[in-house]
Model the fold of this input.
Amino acid sequence: MSVTKNVYGVLNGTSVHSFVIENKNGTRVQLLEKGATLDKLFIKNRDGELIDVIVGHDTLEGHVERGDYQGVVVGQYANRIKDGKFSVDGVEYSVTCNENGVTSLHGGGEYSSAIWNSEILGDNAVKFTYHSPDGTEGFPGNVDVSVVYELSEDNDLTLTYAATSDKKTIINLTNHAYFNLNGTGSGDILSHTMKINAKRYTPIDEISIPTGELASVAGTPFDFTEPKAIGRDIGADHLQLKNGNGYDHNFCIADYDGTLKEAAVAVADKSGISMTVKTTLPGIQLYTGNFLNGSVEGKNGIPMTQRCAFCLETQVFPDTPNHPLWPTCTYDAGEEYTSQTVFSFDII
Done:
């Protein structure tokens, strides 16, 4: 195992570093200080060729100027908050509404835009840390955040998150990697097979805010309890698919109890690469690149077109601060938020 550090680019006069972790199999992960980004992930396909399964950008300028959260850590509250409003102990907070001026998305983009501090841990891990001052984007509390990326010899990529605040606040962190397990630039992901360990999901309204219902997936296009192609039902005449322009929904992980559980398994039809996602969190968001339209170039100058990638974002449910019966996202001053997500890769 080894970790190497290099200058990836310069932003506002400050050098932004990349880190490459490589194991004995040749599996190689590239991480960036900007946004604590998962930038590249090379895995051997069934023919023994190393392919990059992360859809994103080749340059720092691409991430800054054209990025749509590709590979970044998002927070302080990942996903959406209705009207950018929530209350903590009877005090209402208004946070940045950066999605069409009506919704707070991914904490206003704060964590994903930041240059994080970095530290190499041994020969197989990198730790990123960030301090969010009280009131940034409207969120209460001075919050100190960390995420550790660790690669094993068995091709497990583990992300371990931690955060504490000096005020009672809400916290929801995730990584927004866009995956194509056939390789970036290889076409759409509709023939990938997907299984999600969820009997319920959270329906959304026309602006992608949860309605509050925990709906059964049975008999709907949202039933991934048995493996099926992502594209099999994506074009079905279903209100939820119309509201999301495809899949952009939170699935409620079955038997959630805060321990590490299997949330999803994706398998590529061409490369044979499989990815199993485990998490300690209660939800996982399946997003199928619905709003990519080919207008932005990705790696190797290839346009990022609709459905060229999918995201599996482990999380607390969207808009949880406004749904007190859902698994909590609120933490007291000094109380530590922790979570873990593991992406495991194999060949089928």
User: Anything to note?
Assistant: Residues 73 and 175 are 4 Å apart (CA to CA).
